[in-house]
Design brief:
The chain is an alpha+beta fold and 131 residues long. It has three helices and ten strands. Strand 2 and strand 3 form a beta hairpin. The termini are far apart. The mean pLDDT is 95.
Length: 131
Amino acid sequence: MSISDPVANMLTNIRNATLVRKEFVDIPASKMIGKILEIFKNDGYIEDFKLMKDNVQGSYKVYLKYNVKKPVIIGIKRISTPGLRIYKKFNEIPRVLNGLGTAVLSTSKGILSDKDARKNKIGGEVLCYIW
């Protein structure tokens, strides 16, 4: 069975795993998913992730992060969908929770966080919010 929106599938897997306090979750691998997970790790939302070469595509094992049994990820939301793409200029990039959260964008320079996109003055497609 093919997945029509792998980013939404990844976000849903992470959201569901944090709700039931799982230690890790497996997500089908792709280059875009890897870049998004790298942003999540750099911003401190997940502990770590590793690429597991188990079949042709492989999968990422994402280790979730908790503070005193409370998940670090409070909310995670898909913004741009395959049916409705959302694009923003660099000066229109939204601030998630007044800068406490992170918006992930797909730009001409690759997948960037909102802070990096503003610093480089690059707009793009708003993929998701995490806070």
